[in-house]
Amino acid sequence: MALPAVIGVDIGTSSSKGVLVALDGTLLRSAVRAHTVARPAPGHVEMAADVWWTEFVSLVRELTADGEADVRAVGVSGMGPCVLLTDADDVPLRPAILYGVDTRATEQIDRLEHRLGADEIRARCGSGLSSQAAGAKIAWVADEEPELFARARRLYMPSSWLVRKLTGSYVLDHHSASQTTPLYDTVARSWYAPWAGLICPDLELPPLRWSGEAAGTVTAEAARLTGLPAGVPVITGTVDAWAEALSVGAHTVGDLMLMYGTTMFLIHTVPGLLTAPALWSTVGALPGTRNLAGGMATSGAVTAWLRELTGAPDYADLLREAEASGPGANGLLMLPYFAGERTPVMDPQARGVIAGLTLSHTRGDLYRAALEATAYGVRHNIEAIEAVGGDIRRVVAVGGGTQGRLWTQVVSDVTGRPQEVRTTSIGASYGGALLAARLLGDASVDAWNPVQETVVPQPGTAARYEELYGLYRDLYPASADVVHALAAHQNR
Predict the structure, then answer these.
(1) DSSP single-letter state for residue 338
(2) In sequence order, what are the residues at sequence separation of 6 or more whose Cβ sits closer than 8 angstroms to the Cβ of residue 359?
(3) Average confidence score pLDDT of the chain
(4) How large is the C-alpha radius of gyration of the chain?
(5) Digit-coded pLDDT (tens) for 337-362
(6) d(CA 117, CA 197)
(7) Helix or strand or coil: residue 76?
(8) How far is the C-alpha of 484 from the C-alpha of 492, rounded, in Å?
(9) Could you tell me the pTM of the whole model?
């Protein structure tokens, strides 16, 4: 007899991941499809929507190949906020413009701030305009590709695109909508017609639902393509970081999730609307929740770059060498702004800096400096959250970077905060599966994914890292003029 199960699939920046999960939370099978983004111009980061659906079908086929599971529901999530524009027949008009790592819309941000008012935007939308704002990127398409934009009728993100292909439903979750600044009113929790009419008057903005609500059921055609049973429900889905937070239970007031991935993401759950110029205020994935969020433009992207640059050694070898380097990386200090920086720096023209290099430094020192740079960035974000009234009571870590322990240990040492690590850290795909299971009945995250360990700060590192963190904070303003000039050369 086939085992009742759910499927969760997440479309990420560097890969798509799928999981098959029993209704008690047991991970039965997982699969991954690696992909790359396109960078057609400086500051432009894109991906074709065909990749999302092709990889979804491939993942589901692999997960269900043995026929031993009876799939009862499907969960979806994906990177975001993204801008995929289609015509009225759902034909994509161009590759999707990705989230805050794409920094193209600086002129549109300036224009919209001047016209609408920065304070007014933040009061209504929760967040100011930044590289994370999907609405500004829609305005970029209107300005730079007007003939294409004239044919645009619908807006999708990875999760909502999968929902459309699976069920035929055109919907978007409230959380993803709250990152389309300035199109969504976070107070009213609805599209804001006056500003939407200004930026994209001919777009049919999708009806809104909460992430865990059913968007529809698998159609006969989608069942033929994927092998899923026709008629099983599909959740509305959400942005990957929020699904990841759900996968580890980090969604109650006072929680802070740290997502260790290609980028580092932080989500703090707050009791009410809380805004800050250098952070993002959003509605949550679950009804009634609100978040204050931050995101670094790189984290795992820098460690992967260093690995390729030094001959592609095993990550285990790099971690051993970095651990041997010790706190402070033998006097190296890195700014991890290799793709600009999001919060709280909010500078798309920032660039990476490695300070203190000598001929005696090793690969392990560089790798350690990269891990520590991420930790300093996390601390900077935490301080920004608390400066505007955030009350962080618990930190939960998730994502591929939690494996190997060193990275999470460095972050705890730099921030002085313990981090919970749960049994399953596969992330957003597991969170999507959890939401799918909740369509069928009660599914508790504590039963599905109990705490495995708590990483605590090591005695003796606080003073050393306090000094280095001060230098880290000094290095950006000291080098900003130079790196901005270099960024201008790169953008020519």
Answers:
(1) B
(2) none
(3) 96
(4) 22
(5) 999 999 999 998 999 999 999 999 99
(6) 17
(7) strand
(8) 13
(9) 0.90
